[in-house]
Specification:
The protein has helices spanning 2-11, 19-56. The chain has 69 residues and is mainly α.
Length: 69
């Protein structure tokens, strides 16, 4: 197990970068997250609407359901 661990540590080691390169890399990561966030939120809302519309009909009528008040 020791040899495997040493080999994997050698393969997956963190590269050294200067501060300017690291800052640029972090900025690009944040830009990618912010660019995709609106699309991800829209997909999540769409999925929620689809799931609610599919599962709303089979629910037995109850006094707490809107329209029954």
């Amino acid at each position: 197990m020791g040899r495997l661990w040493r080999a994997l540590r050698g393969i997956f080691r963190a590269d050294e970068a200067d501060e300017a390169d690291a800052a640029t890399f972090r900025a690009r990561q944040l830009q990618a997250v912010l660019r995709l966030m609106a699309m991800a939120m829209a997909v999540n809302v769409t999925n929620a609407v689809i799931i609610c519309s599919v599962l709303w009909a089979p629910v037995a009528p109850s006094p707490c359901r809107p329209g029954r008040w």
